[in-house]
């Protein structure tokens, strides 16, 4: 199986997923193997939500829509064009996946297979239904994928390299356990937004997507704001308001109530609007339903601070603040070439 055949298979997978990316699921008779897989995938989406209350159908659809838009011939070719991909002796690459948002490990899965290696997957129990089904679909559209994808719930063994994602504590364990293997080890990171006070209403409304999508559980979600001295939060809260129905979700509401009670009992100063709290705090990782903020004296001083803390940061959302910034509203729509932790996984996979 050559690179073009692998690309074609993932394009067909994107066509299959496109049927499930909108609020109304519509079957497309032109999609290959639909009679075999369509109804079964609808069932897997239902199971995913039942297994994990954070995986609402809305958030699953959002993730699927992003992958539908990414898995096109144009995007895949643009992504892979800089590399010389010609692996003749595939290696077994283990992936230990997180489960914080739907299909969070799909990019690693795609990267290993598109580069020509075999994949050994240990999924999170929080996100275990969707990917195995998509792997089976790939085997149907390109039979040569059979035998290249293995899912396990047991201890991973017999692998040549590993990509592992976890908390800061588990990352330390991974680094020790996999010290003799080529590896990419990812730990906790968070995303921040730098506000100047001159943002338009549209930019702040877009920022709300970066904050609330996936309930703020992703590493690309904005959990911390940097604002100038004497920043007025009125426009910020106004722009957040259209997300107020989020408080109707029981898991989110329970976290909101709990964290609010903790802040009140601890007599912390915070501002809140009934579904979001903001609290002045130097930390990057904020609890669910909370965004931390910190004042800065000058853009220069803030850039120096963020440079020192770069290992804790996944994305910086801003307008004209820094070279590699993400535009407001775009954190949860990464391109194929936007690598987690800025570590080029294709380059890694071609070097093992």
UniProtKB/TrEMBL annotation:
Read off the InterPro entries from this record: Ald_DH/histidinol_DH, CoA_reduct_LuxC
Q: Which GO terms describe its molecular function?
A: acyl-CoA dehydrogenase activity
In which domain of life is the source organism classified? Bacteria
Q: Which UniProt keywords apply?
A: NADP
Instruction: From the UniProt record, give one GO term of the biological process aspect.
Output: bioluminescence
Protein name stated in the entry: Acyl-CoA reductase
């Amino acid at each position: 199986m050559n690179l073009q055949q692998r690309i074609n298979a993932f394009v067909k997978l994107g066509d299959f997923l496109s049927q499930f990316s909108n609020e109304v699921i519509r079957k497309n008779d032109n999609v290959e193997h639909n009679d075999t897989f369509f109804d079964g995938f609808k069932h897997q989406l239902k199971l995913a939500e039942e297994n994990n209350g954070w995986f609402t159908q809305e958030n699953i659809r959002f993730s699927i829509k992003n992958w539908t838009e990414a898995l096109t011939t144009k995007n895949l070719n643009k992504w892979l064009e800089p590399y010389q991909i010609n692996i003749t002796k595939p290696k077994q690459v283990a992936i230990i996946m997180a489960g914080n948002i739907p299909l969070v490990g799909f990019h690693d899965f795609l990267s290993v297979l598109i580069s020509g290696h075999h994949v050994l997957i240990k999924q999170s129990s929080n996100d275990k239904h969707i990917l195995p089904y998509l792997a089976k679909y790939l085997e149907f559209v390109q039979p040569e994928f059979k035998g290249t994808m293995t899912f396990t719930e047991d201890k991973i063994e017999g692998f040549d390299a590993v990509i592992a994602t976890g908390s800061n504590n588990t990352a330390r364990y991974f680094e020790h356990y996999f010290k003799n293997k080529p590896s990419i080890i990812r730990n906790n990171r968070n995303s921040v937004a730098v506000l100047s006070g001159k943002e338009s209403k549209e930019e702040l409304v877009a920022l709300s997507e970066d904050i609330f999508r996936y309930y703020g559980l992703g590493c690309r979600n904005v959990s911390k704001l940097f604002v100038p001295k004497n920043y007025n939060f009125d426009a910020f809260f106004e722009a957040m308001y259209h997300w107020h129905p989020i408080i109707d979700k029981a898991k989110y509401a329970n976290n909101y109530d709990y964290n609010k009670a903790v802040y009140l009992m601890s007599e912390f100063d915070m501002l809140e609007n009934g579904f979001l709290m903001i609290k002045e705090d130097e930390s990057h990782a904020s609890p669910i339903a909370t965004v931390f903020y910190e004042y800065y004296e000058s853009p220069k001083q803030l850039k120096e601070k963020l440079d020192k803390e770069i290992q804790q940061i996944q994305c910086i959302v801003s307008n004209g603040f820094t070279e590699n910034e993400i535009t407001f509203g775009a954190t949860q729509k990464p391109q194929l070439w936007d690598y987690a932790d800025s570590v080029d996984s294709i380059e890694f996979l071609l070097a093992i």
